[in-house]
Batch of 3 targets.
Target 1
Amino acid sequence: MKLIRFPLLLSKAYQIWKLSGVLFLVSCLVSSCTPEKQETDKKPNFVFIIIDDQNQDLACFGKEHVKTPNIDKLAAQGVIFPNAYVQQAVCAASRASFLTSLHPRATGVEYPYSYYFVEEVIPKYGTIGQHFLNNGYHTRYFGKIHHGYNEVLSEPNYGPGGTRYVSEENIEIDRTLGNAGVPPYEMYDGPDSLFKDGKIALAVLEALDKAAGQEEPFFFAVGFLKPHLPLSAPKKYWDLYERDEIPLVPNKEGPIGSPSIAFSRYNLKQYKWEHADPDRLFTDDYARLLRHAYFACTSFVDAQIGKIMERVEELGLSENTYYVYCSDHGFHMGELNHYGKTSLHEANLKSPLIVAHKDMKTAGLTAEGLVEYVDILPTLLDLAGIDIPEHMEGVSIGRLLDNPDQSFKKAVFSQQERETIGRRKGFSMRNERYRYTEWRNTVTGDILAFELYDLQEDPLETVNIGLQEESSELVLNLSKQLNDGWKAAMPDGVEHIADNPDAPPAYSYGREGIPRRKIWHEAYGGSEEDGWQKAGEIRMQKEDSIRKTL
């Protein structure tokens, strides 16, 4: 029987229907999760906003002390997803995952990108930009989209250039002493255009002016750089806050019973902090200073988003433009005595997600269901009327745009490496009540440690209850759910058919990967001249030999 695909329906499993139901389904479903049907069949435009290291400290996500009026406006025009989770809380791995709709197990990316991802995965499966380009979209990237990798689409990517600090003093200290000599924050009294994110916004405005006169729809991915460290923003955004009124986190101590492998506080070695002792708390005054800097950066980026939204409106494009707002992952800002990423805790893995359109019928509502960042790309393709390739491991969240008041996935999955060449990793699963994490030796398969948090009774993750005797049966059940994996956690009615191979160990790509490749060869032998495939073969042979002795 012939199958027909309706691109605006709700997920892959809801997009293939028997011919006998076509007319009924079109009349019932096509109007609700999308804006009112236009008189023409013109494809929608997209502004896909990716923030670097932005957690859910946003007013529209309940943190009303943070000044984000433009993101709040987006939220009022769309649906908020407060339970959206990244698949790894580090920029390269997360971006590789949601830009392809593949879990890290399939991308083979830790940090930075891997040769396997660049030379095998991208050519085979494509990226978000390539999917839109190949379907008639004028497609451009601005700022940071990939990590250390460049795609030329309709036009070359826009990069702002320049230095990470603005003041001459900090630039000189950074040049001469490096990270350890400069503070992790900067306030500078100057216009937005002196800062990289201000330049990115201006480039997008110019591109929008050009796009308004073109027939083809546009897909603009806009990657803002803040609030990534260093926390540098114009003074006027610092002035939005009274520091002594900035609240501190209620869970500033590390979790009771947490294994040492759970955190990697490498940031303390990268900047000139109050101190570099990972076991000591910062003083309250210093913690407020850091949170002040982070919120100033958030408000600065919010203002740039406002400029883009205003220009879209002025050009008469808002009636046919979707916005998707997300981050590459969350960020601890004092929670559990951590300022940074790479943990498998809520502050890192739970990340902001908003899908908005001016005429969305469910505007202003919140979808509480569990979703993953691998679901973003299928959703964008769905809204654009583009077929969702069968290899994608995410599923469109269109059904939640139609009806936010329903459950979605049964669990979400994340992972994190804990050494340079990935022989110790954490694998984490969060269902509606619990977060369960296993830290494993990936060579022997041994479980090194595990964590269990009851998010209903302990949403701040202050006590690891996994070692308590009364948790033993629960641990076994959650371990099974973790190991059953993402396919077993699909929404009701969705049967996923993606069957991608596991990636080989991550052989790091590019200049940023040089130190990691050196450590790799020190551990396993060989040299870079052998190439990444041979290097992987040598490693696998040695690790197989270890496993045979067990």
Note: Confidence is low (pLDDT under 50) at residues 1-34, 36-40.
Target 2
Amino acid sequence: MAVSLLVCLGAASLGCSAADERVQGEEDVQSSGDALSIPAPYLDCPSAVLDAANLVTLYVSPAGNDSNSGTSTASPLASLAGAQSKIVIPMTKDYRIYVRGGTYHGHATRWWKTNANRRIHILAFPGETPIFDGNLSGETKSRRARFFDLDPVTGSPVTNITLSGLSVRNYVHHGIRLGTTKGVPNTCNRILGNQVDNIGDAWGECHDVGSGNVINATGCVGLPNPTNNADIAAGDLSCECAPGTCLCKGYGALDLVSSSKNVLSRNVSRDLINHADTRGLIHGVYAAHASTDNLIQENYIRNCRGTPIKFRDASSNNHVIANYVESSGEGYFLTDSDQSGSYSTNVEVRDNVFTFGYMSQASGLGLAQHASSFSIAPSQSGGTLFQPNQPTQEDVTAIAVGDIDGDGNNETFVALHYPGLDFTKVVYTDGVNKTLSRVAYTSTFFKVTAMAVGNFDGTGPAEVVTAFYNSDSEETQVHRGILTDGSYALVGGGKLLDTSGSSGWKVTALAAGQFSGSVPKLYTAASVAGTTQIHRGNGVTIQSGSSSPGVADGTIVYSSSSWTVPAMTTGKIDSSGTLKLITAFHWIGSGSPKNRIYLGDGSAGSGATGTVIFDDPSWQVRALATGKLDGSATRLISAFDAGGTGKVYLSDASAQALGTSLYSNSTWSINAVAVGNLDGAGTGDEVITAFDHSSATQVHAGDGTTSATNVGEYYRWPLADPLP
């Protein structure tokens, strides 16, 4: 396996970007489900690659029927249970089960058909998202215990199942469980790229089958037991009552019971919540009863009330690598327990990012309970970053959008700064799932002031160039990012600038523009020794001594001591059809205030000023971005602070900034905007905007032609508590 170390740069340590260990072929299995090879120490598992010569493909659809053949999109099945019924035992073929997009209400699957020498892949149909919702149609509270239970046959431990690309929500006990009985092993499975939301008793209510009584987490004792135990035993309802017991409580998004040598990677688990009396029982990943040698890698867990990752009863030799956990846990991020007499040992923990506890957990969160179970790499040597304290304020300082891995899908980067903690992290989407589930940068010294995306070297995919600032040392650094084994780090591709002191640079804006030649140039706006300057650079060359052609090749596009530059972008937005450098200026000289937006040609001397497309004494420009919002002509998106009212506008056909109003609100201010094809569909771009209000942050996407928010929410802080 390729292993990279974290990179720490800068006089005060610029910060670390998690480098990590990859599952070979993982990218392929997420897109097609057909290619995956398990790296050491999992090489004794059989191959996960489907046998094309002996392959049966089945289709499941919300519009299907389990009496259909299921062998074509025209004759789909209705459920995974229906698909399992089509598998012939003994298995002599591999099975690929494509699940079409749409919502499947109330499905609960017990899967038992497996074969050590054959493979079963349960996959989202390419380009579609199937949603398994535990709520019955028309209900808002779940009565389903779990979505998927792998129930291995005793004596057949190698189960070899893949689940990928599924969305699971609103189940009480758990989302996906590998194994149902302690001591009955299952091995060599892959849970990849799934999304599991709303697990726990906060999202459900248990009904007594016999009398119809509602049984909640605190009201089980003394109520009559169900009379229809056949339904209960089959997992039909979430309240599994036996004489004297009631289990209406949540346990985890991904549960392992005597389950080993599995790969759990790039899954998203959010809002895993039990009521107060069972709050510690819910987890993002829960490995119990000798679940060993599992790779738990690059998963995202958010808003989990219990310990986000838990081990129990000799679940040893597991590997917790490059996961991102936030706003989770009321005591620890990692725990181990020995209810059956044996603690786990040798659990490797490295390259993870753990930030903030659950909800109002302000401080005192620990990294690991029973720490001797874990082998935790220290953060200063390339290990786990641990930020336990709850922030009181969060600011979005920059947003960037671009296809940085060359897969045709745009990733979205959002820089978050926490002033009270002096902490910064940059998170990003994977280009398919629109959740900010990955981490490109963390630091307790440097905050991000600007980002720009461009293919500056003309080879491979685009790169992110980022400006960082340390207020304590007045140090500015500009770095080129790097893609390593499928993950992006904002530092590591080359340091273009390192300057400090009162005469140093303070970068306020970055932009990429291909005004001539075959590659774009980097434009950097900065305060340099008290003078605002815009420099042109190649975006590639590493600083050497006082020479920094990566940001300043000798071409000064603009210089003034009377104006600052709060925002800058490029685009072909006017009738000339030529690329323009679009620059926002704010007057800091004597006399009345002024705010302007200019179109310039990007050349030396006066390349930032030319045609004025906005001029107002009180509306300060907060952000600029360009894109083909309607799929044809490139337009400008401008965000303003209009005397305390946040406003977003789309430019008109004549390139005037105040064309169509997309947003106006006197409560929320605007911190950053970016434009790109966020949904991967059609030809039109969307706009993504960061909003701030009274120590609250939200990031929304909009179509950019009628609204800045109508596509949906990407992110919010603080989280809303679903419990009364």
Note: Residues 566-724 form one domain.
Target 3
Amino acid sequence: MTSAQVISADVETASEPQPARDGNRRFAAFSGLKSPKIVAGFVIVIFFGLVAILGPVLVRTDPSQVSNSVLEAPSFAHLLGTTQSGQDLFAQMIAATQSSMYVGFVAAILSTALSILVGLLAGYLGGFWDEVLSLITNIFLVIPGLPLAVIMLGYLPGAGSLSIIVVIAITGWAWSARLLRAQTFSIRKREFISAARLSGEGTFRIIALDIVPNQLAIIASSFFGTVIAAILTQAGLAFLGLTNVTEWSWGTILYWAQSSGALLLGAWWWYIPAGLAIALVGTGLSLINFGIDEFVNPRLRVAGLGTRKPRRPEVAPTRRRRGAASLVAESEPGDTRGLSQPVRTATAEERDVILDIRHLQVDYVTGPTPIKAVNDVSLRLKRGSVLGIAGESGSGKSTLAYAITRLHKPPAEISAGELVYTDRDGKQVDILKMTDAELRKFRWADLSIAFQSAMNALNPILRIGAQLKDVIVAHEPGVAKADLENRVKDLLQLVGISPDRANAYPHELSGGMRQRVMIAIALALNPEIVVMDEPTTALDVVIQRQIIEKIIELKDRLGFSVIFITHDLSLLVELCDEIAVMYAGRVIEVASASNFYRDAKHPYSQGLLNSFPKLSGPKRELVGIPGSPPDLRQIPSGCAFRTRCPFVYEACSQHVPALIPTIGMRDSAGSKPPAQARTGGAETPEAREERQTVAACLLYDPQLRPAGTDTEHDQLLVGEER
């Protein structure tokens, strides 16, 4: 899934505020670079910079001068000891620090300047210049850097610092240029660039005053990364003896230590200082780089890099994890410390299932006979996956969502079942057995919900920032005001809304922005599970697409699991890993999204799919499902779908079908063998999906299925390729 394209000015304004053009604010982005990482990194780098500048002035000892003090350990006379020739290692380290820092920073300046020139021109000019400059960039990217540096160094006169700087600058610019080109492609399409162009500003003025300031943090990050690479490259070339070994650098010291057998002689003081200096400078520059990365993208402060199964993030770095999950983690299996129920230990198979819904039943007690809105529902939500729940209005989808989060109020009540939550350590608790106090801590900290109809779910008289704060303060009453403000800003940026919209009221936002606010509220306390109850209802298809892509992006980045409820199967097929279809309060089919789309088993599921038009191929008449969903107060006997099913027979009115595996049912009709049989016994992904598909239909029950119905039904299910 690619990142969402900017479709409307409304969304673009919400996600990325336009930068100010005046000189006072153009460089204001760097005013916030005060993170501990950046401070620590600068302290380390500045220390070595001062040594490089002041060291040769204060230390007058010749680093190449030999003496009779051979291989002496560090002492007051020789602070870092001496070499095999009696040379003072402290003087060598001072000279080497100056040389290494000089080469690293000068080479990085030249390399970064070259990457800015190539990257920004290619991205802004496009067309022919982009093709030519990108071709040159790609050539340098595919050539291994170190071998190229070795070859170039051999053809340059001498092998001193100047030659090394030239080699590093020529071989190290391509990656940064490629990154800047991609960023410039994005920036040049924004409205403030068009306004500058229309006002008559020249190309280089626009690049210098509008594009470069918006990429200063990225340029700085690339620069410090290049400094690290330059220092390491010089050290590597010197250690291999490919540079002037009489010119002191950290790599040269290591070269002489290795050549003289310092390790065998036990002269640890000969090689440790130089290696430690390289490691410390690299650490300092890396800390600066990481801090800049976090500042450029605030989501990286809390979520790490976007990977398929990332570490658990935190919205604020200083906050402590709260909620029932911490109570579960502090409790031992079998006891009740901190919880009102014994904590169980999950089996190896159960550890991957974060929420196990077991035989859940929800009744509406409005008369002498309860109405079963959710009837014997069993589902499993796997960790890090998306479970979609589909069905017509009145099928029990929203009732199930409220049951999972225990938000029902009378006359609704959960009359049976279990909701087993498994934390990452494999400890299990039943959500239905939690007390009210435990449930308050558990909700939103580990299980949250994004309600349908954001306009109704948001308080119309409170600003959205205040509503985000309410969620946080309700669970963490002691949070500091400054931290609270920062967390609200982080949450809004997380869902692509500018932080300055925290002071807006719900009616001042578009429908898509309101739904993003609902997602931000659901993610306020970093839950493990998010239940989304028709979050795209009443939104147009463009905004639906943006919301779906944002949900996928956040799920992959933050690693939470999703129960996504909707009546729109097209959304579920694209978004979900697994789809469950509900009808009259029961789950009638569960299958992987791909297998459901290719080959839905239940006649009701097939009818839902057939009600959507095809986007390609020949036109066909849409086939809807005849009739209406049943009245839950008067559900037909046997199969609730039998009054609308084209394959109904006598047994359908006498037996309530249970969920059973559907694989192999076609063999008896001879229409299509299972995928495993088609591959000579090896189980393919398709076969595995077929094995995991279950449907509540008597057509798949070998004991109750009447003879002669297989072929006609299988022809419908196989149908045309979707």
Note: The chain has three domains: 35-61+80-296, 324-583, 597-718.
